[in-house]
TrEMBL record:
One of its GO terms (biological process) is ubiquitin-dependent protein catabolic process. The lineage of its organism: Eukaryota, Viridiplantae, Streptophyta, Embryophyta, Tracheophyta. One of its GO terms (molecular function) is ubiquitin protein ligase activity. The keyword Zinc applies. This is Uncharacterized protein. Residues 88-152 form the CTCHY-type domain. Signal peptide: none annotated. Pathway: Protein modification; protein ubiquitination. Pfam families: zf-CHY, zinc_ribbon_6. Residues 11-86 form the CHY-type domain. It comes from the Eukaryota.
Length: 213
């Protein structure tokens, strides 16, 4: 028996998805015309191809087609499946073509950044000079670098490859992540600090490094 009309949108919530997101659809990548769980699934596969010349990232805004995971119907990107009526993502952004059933992340779309972020719109402000959103805790306490967040940067790879001097190896520091807004204590690194929650290096030190007692 078919589910009542009012129950169809909620069917399968948090029961489908990939390792990156809980959602009830897959996307068709416009760049290679293949089906993937999400843009991260595509990027991981595309950037693992044997020929480096074939490596590429999907342009999220260019996604046009999705496949409902409940009824396997391919259709134009939208929140509600045109065939079975299920809600393919409790959070849906028609600009980024982003779906996520886990709305506890407090997703929001920033028009100035041009992408969706997590952590709640009320907890962030957009710095037009940097071209990025920051925690409101940094509103009057961050160094502006024009378009600093709009470039692919080798710093993340340099951090992972740089050994720490013995004097700093056991030091801890408190950081605030600009991407997920989480505050964590991490091992201090002379180049940059990695968020323990989302693994981003887009972080700010909020307490100086200290040696263990």
């Amino acid at each position: 028996m078919d589910a009542p009309e009012c129950e169809r949108p909620a069917f399968g919530k948090m029961g489908y998805g990939c390792k990156h997101y809980k959602r009830r659809c897959k996307i068709r990548a416009p760049c290679c015309n293949e089906i993937y769980g999400c843009r991260h699934c595509h990027n991981e596969a595309a950037n693992s191809l044997p020929n480096p010349a074939d490596h590429h990232d999907i342009v999220r805004h260019d996604v046009k087609q999705v496949v409902c995971l409940v009824c396997d119907t391919e259709q134009l990107a939208g929140q509600i499946c045109t065939n079975c009526g299920v809600n393919m993502g409790e959070y849906f952004c028609n600009i980024c073509k982003f779906y996520d059933d886990d709305i506890g992340k407090q997703q929001f779309h920033c028009d100035d950044c041009g992408i969706c972020r997590v952590g709640g719109r009320e907890n962030f402000f957009h710095c037009k000079k940097c071209g990025s959103c920051y925690s409101i805790a940094l509103r009057d306490n961050h160094m502006c670098v024009e378009n600093s967040m709009r470039h692919h940067c080798p710093i993340c790879y340099e951090i992972e490859a740089t050994a720490m001097p013995d004097d700093y190896r056991n030091r801890k520091v408190w950081i605030l992540c600009n991407d997920c807004n989480d505050t964590t204590e991490v091992n201090f690194h002379i180049i940059g600090q990695k968020c323990r929650h989302c693994n981003s290096y887009n972080t700010r030190t909020i307490a100086p490094p200290v040696l263990p007692q």
